[in-house]
Amino acid sequence: MSFSIKERKEMLATLQQDTMDVLIIGGGITGAGLALQTAASGLKTGLVEMQDFAEGTSSRSTKLVHGGIRYLKTFDVEVVSDTVSERAVIQGIAPHIPKADPMLLPIYDDEGTTTFDMFSVKVAMDLYDQLANVTGSEYANYTLTKEEVLEREPYIKQEGLQGAGVYLDYRNNDARLVIDNVKQAVADGALAVSKVKVTGFLYEADQIIGVKARDELSGETIEIKAHYVINTTGPWVDKIRQLNFKRAVVPQMRPTKGVHLVIDSKRLPVPQPTYFDTGKQDGRMVFAIPRENKTYFGTTDTDYTGDYTDPEITQADVDYLLEVINYRYPTANITLADIESSWVGLRPLLTDNAGSDYNGGDNGSISDRSFQKVLDTIASFKQDEATRSDVERVLKNLEMNRAEKAPSSVSRGSKLEREADGLITLAGGKITDYRKMALGALKLIVSLFEEEHQRNVTPVDSAHYPVSGGDFDATRVNEELSRLAQEGIEKGLPEEQAHYIADFYGTNAKHVFAYIDQHPLFKADLSVAEAICLRYGLDHEMVLTPADYLVRRTNHLWFQRETLDEIKHPVIEAMSEYFNWDTTQKEHYTMELQRIIDDSDLIHLKKEGN
After folding, report:
1. How high is the pLDDT of residue 401?
2. What is the pLDDT of residue 410?
């Protein structure tokens, strides 16, 4: 199956000609997961994403499929049970992506309010293992003494250390999970197009029957019709809902900003993911995680009201994380200069307690005065006494009653509703829940087709339907990936590179390795491994820009920063050859990539510090 710029042109044409059964707005993990399920259920599915797939929140997480053990502190057993059960499902349908990586939880007794003590952490972990069905297995929890912790992590703070608990958790490649869901959806007939921005709705009477959109590559305006339009845009959910000026829109989202910083592992050797209280008595916890010869740590959790597309890391964000990491690892002395790369993402948190409230609190509502102003302005707009700009202004300046609780306690639950205009909105949640959230939306769509179109739709069994690259025995991951790697080794790839590609692409690795027979693939000076991955991305993963490839299809920007400067220009040269870019286009993409690299490098902060 090809999934390239050629298919993009064909998909855009079909989207304009046909009426979709389902049109999904938003190509993050929620939209990608839903597209897989609707397409596999035989529904004519369209998906449009204004940026690259996963470019927003879904490539900027903590990169874990996290089990949520801290919720057991308040005996929120149902939430943990749901989370670990769903995590097991994801590992089954995408076995090449989430990988078991046990988490170390150090316990201190000198820091005031802490999440656990040695007794309560063992109780929590035993219950956690039962819920995760790993009791008695190689992944069963265990505790460490202070001496054992320090032998494992000699740089960790010794004062007050009591010991640690170790329990099962999973590392994740968030952007890869998205693209492999999208690719499977396309294989099943979905029309998925990135860099297409929805700008308005199409109506029949007062019901939404499609969207107006702009192709961000060509500038062309298009219209797409659908029986059902579904909003899965994460933090942008309210912005899409507000495109309908015919009704009052009460905001649902309260985005918070999460920042992660990456350093060389030599500066802070952390042998396994470690999860700890900040020591600041602020109710937050922070991760330090090893990955590809790097250590990254985060996250912050602060309210955010700025630009959603390009949130910025501030000095205050960096100062907070450096203070925490240097408190927890006192001899490390990590500074701004040590930071090799970084990322910042927005969490699509709900303002109310819709769905499961993972952190126990209603954390925001619109003030009565602001709510009344929305209603009055909408009424004036309908009577031609207010302009569209007036409506936009009042919606962008809502007052919220939210001072009483911290962002870290906002609901991580999800919300599914069909509004009066017919728009279906699926909001909130977290990566671990994506398939289950999509299943809820699929069930609603199936019922609507039955009730309103007298059409029976048989939903796919998504708990057992693998994503692209995941069609192998999930109980034999290491064996299967080693077998796949052998194909690359037999074609001449070094063993390390062959195993890396197999681990990264799953069964799609065989398609990547097939390009070795055609090498050299480009005139540009790229290694065989880099060339075949790039060509696979261009032909089969809708890579349209250098950033698509170097940021989201691979780990170059964040976890291979030391080689990025060497390969970025050959990658651009190869892509220029593939797309036949002129000088202006080539310069545009070169400058765009450099801006992204500079942002990740925190150049704006490092210059200010000199």
Report:
1. 44
2. 38
